[in-house]
Amino acid sequence: MAIADLLNQAMTENIPLCSMGKILKSLNEKDREAIEKAQQNGVPANTIFNVLKSEGYKISTNSLYLHIKGGCRCPKE
After folding, report:
1. Is 3 domain-assigned?
2. Host domain of residue 57
3. Is 72 buried (19+), middle (13-18) or exposed (0-12) by CB count in 10 A?
């Protein structure tokens, strides 16, 4: 395996994610798409926060807002 391949693999496997990034990664595809669609359609972050909290996810409003605005530590596409 080439060095570039090894580095790409390491970066893919060890991506530092914020709380919201970790939650999104843990969700099934249907739920992840629902959250992404809600964000795109202007559903207030507070609504998404309340839904996640009601399902037992531990996240702060600040972490959610930072993730939505792209100010978190998650890799940018």
Report:
1. no
2. 17-69
3. buried
